[in-house]
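Two folds, back to back.
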Amino acid sequence: MKKYQEAIQSFDKALAINNQHQDALIAKGISIFLTGKQDEGIATVDKAIEINNSYIDAWLARADLLNTAGRHEGALAASEKALNIDNKNVYAWTGKSGSLVKLRRLDEASKAADEAIKLSPNIPSVQANTWTVKANALYESGKYEEALLAYKKVAELTPNAELAWSNLSELLNRMKKYDEALVAADKAIKIESASLSGWNQRGNALFGLGRNLDAIAAYDKVLQLKPDYHYALVSKGNALSRLGKYEDAIAAYDKAIKIVPTDRPLLRQPDTYNTLNLKGNALIQLKKYDEALLAYQEAVKIKPDFAEGYLNQGKTLQTLQKYQEALAAYDKALGINNDLSEAKTKREEVAKS
């Protein structure tokens, strides 16, 4: 914080000599932003734009700050303005691609990243950053094979970057290539021993390989580093359930449910409903049917189109011999997903009883 305050004072001296000094205004705005005064920092950069709205560095700075602040529509507009000034500016294309990923305009993000890659053959840092954006866009689009090539390219460009290997490991786990995912996770951990994602992906790979105790040890390492890491708590609960340690699994799920999400994926799409469903499944194994039913009911209250939650309600109600309620739950599940074969089978069982 002190260094930013000192930088601001230095830029103020330059501006006292020439209050039209755009670079000083931009640098001052960035320093103010980094002290936590985001709006004031952006407003200071905007003063540089007011002096000359064709000065591309000011628009690039505005785009970068807005992206960092999570104001991606504004950041995209600033990148577009920069491209109107110079459509060969690699940093404008990089900023645009990053904004588009955050806005879930994934095909456009990938195309913008391609432009940045094409324009920066001799700028390794831009290449690595833009290949990462492209890989993320492909991954979130479900284009896993293409994303795999992109993440491997990032690892090739930055072999000593923890993020390159942890991202690659995450995708490999998603593709069920657990042996390869484990190798990539271990590389991330070797580079940065406190890598949250590296340890979490190591746990996921080990879980996928059926090495449940080793997976729990990896998740415990994550939780040692960050006790409120939602994903590790849920995954640890799953590994404990697989080992038949249902009480411990429920404790892990309960901790996960209490966490208020802060990361963007969970803010965009909370998965509390799924964790409640997993908790319900563990309670079923303990024959705590009433508690399980409450968990399933809470899950569908959060996500009314959660067919599996209604299916599990139906099965629990059937076990409790509440057949009419079970029929209603199965009907709900089938109304959401008519191809849910287990719901059809269980409904027929109840109808015959």
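---
second:
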Amino acid sequence: NPMNLNMWAWSQSTKVRSIGLCHSVQGTAERLARFMGVPFAEMSFWCAGINHQAWYLDLRRGHGGGRGEDLYPLLREKMDDAAVFDEDRVRFEVMRHFGYFVTESTHHMSEYVPWFRTTPDLIEAFTTPRWDYYDICVNRRDPHEERMARQASGQEPVETARTNEYCSFIVNAMETNVPYVMNANVPNTWGRSAFRGGGAGSVLISNLPPACNVEVPCLVDGAGVHPCAIGDLPEQLAAINRTNVNVQALAVEGALTGDREMIVRAVQMDPLTGALLPLSRIREMVGELFTAEARFLPQFS
């Protein structure tokens, strides 16, 4: 997933103030509310980790922070309902073994770990129906482009309905000083907001590497964006995160320095790739990718 890579590289190579936004935290929270039959407006949560692999550390009906009804017992009960389990097989299976629900979808999560895509039987058991990304991108692109063209030409009105994407809420909070809480992707060393002058503060997630990019709750108000310190993640969750952070560290170094060997090593360290292929075949595959994409990657020529 490019979010962590992009934000990590961006923070190391520019001084532009930035945060990374994704809809997986709020989107998954809405999905969990549906699974449990709990009105989303009544649910609170505390979620942190890395993008596409953040964890609902606290999930409650009513106030969070140890108050209100703990919803994890209800979610575990729903997991035993075959119809519910079938909607999110990978994420429920990860929760069964590691104790917490993860933010990214079953199909994506299955790509970040070595447990669900190594045999045809596992693929059939956990990732059906199969996604074909090329078909998805083509099918999503054309209708959107056609609709935007009609809106730009005045043939149909521009849509103004608000979604659960964070951007408009951030602008509103910064302009009106009405606080808003969201999850954003920031460097782990940002103990205070980059929008207040930057600088490295405390590490936000203490058992993830300081240099990495993390996804944590952030308070937004008229003074800017203020990431929240999490402390330690449960060690089993940090262990999963670190397997992906290792890949990101190598990939970012390779991208910023033009070191082709670091890119090879990044792919070799990918958990799923390493579970499927020997080192020599991975090196061969990455070489084929560099050849195919050479016109887009002049820094590696």
